[in-house]
Amino acid sequence: xxxxxxxxxxxxxxxxxxxxxxxxxxxxxxxxxxxxxxxxxxxxxxxxxxxxxxxxxxxxxxxxxxxxxxxxxxxxxxxxxxxxxxxxxxxxxxxxxxxxxxxxxxxxxxxxxxxxxxxxxxxxxxxxxxxxxxxxxxxxxxxxxxxxxxxxxxxxxxxxxxxxxxxxxxxxxxxxxxxxxxxxxxxxxxxxxxxxxxxxxxxxxxxxxxxxxxxxxxxxxxxxxxxxxxxxxxxxxxxxxxxxxxxxxxxxxxxxxxxxxxxxxxxxxxxxxxxxxxxxxx
Length: 282
Prior knowledge:
The chain is α+β, with helices and mostly antiparallel strands and 282 residues long. Helices cover 23% and strands 21% of the residues. The chain has a four-stranded antiparallel sheet, covered by helices on one side. The two termini are 15 Å apart. Mean pLDDT is 93; it is low at 278-282.
């Protein structure tokens, strides 16, 4: 799933292409949407909130989308959005100005709602880790209040802090030598949050290499997607196991040597490096 840095960069790209200009064409391929004429209305702004995109349109309307696992927005000149291009079955939305069009592929969520009601879809989120006015104190307090819940799963809970996904959770925990299955209340959550924010801010400085990019950017990950490979710190073996309660459990990459031993969901069996052959992990 794209993490907060990708969503923020996507919002910035959509805003630059569409804001302050009238929409000349809108096609939303999603069931049960209210009948609202959007053509002729100006795009006011496109902003990110955690992993959510809020496209605010004149007249008090917000187009709310979420990329989920496979979604992305692509920008291309409006004149290139031919019937052949628009016919693709994986397109969920086309929102076009006179010069540029935004095409939403495989979006995981799409809805129209009054801008005044945005709290219905993002009000449950914790502080956005990439927001300019990020409330670190509140994020830390949220995580500390998770008590015996593992710090890894608490970090991935968007109600505590919005925008962190499996990549930056794993990297921040490794950077601070924190066992992912350690209780949140026993963890240095202030250092973990600061580490994750710094990494994600660095990623924000990297340009989107491709308009279809759905992955976060790090110079080189230390543990994420490195199971079966040597740890960059201790030369031990990086592993991956599930963390959190099903069905919300997620993968967690970590180094047992640097981070407190095998996780309770790790069977200890040999794990081949990703993409090197058959996998024995989910």
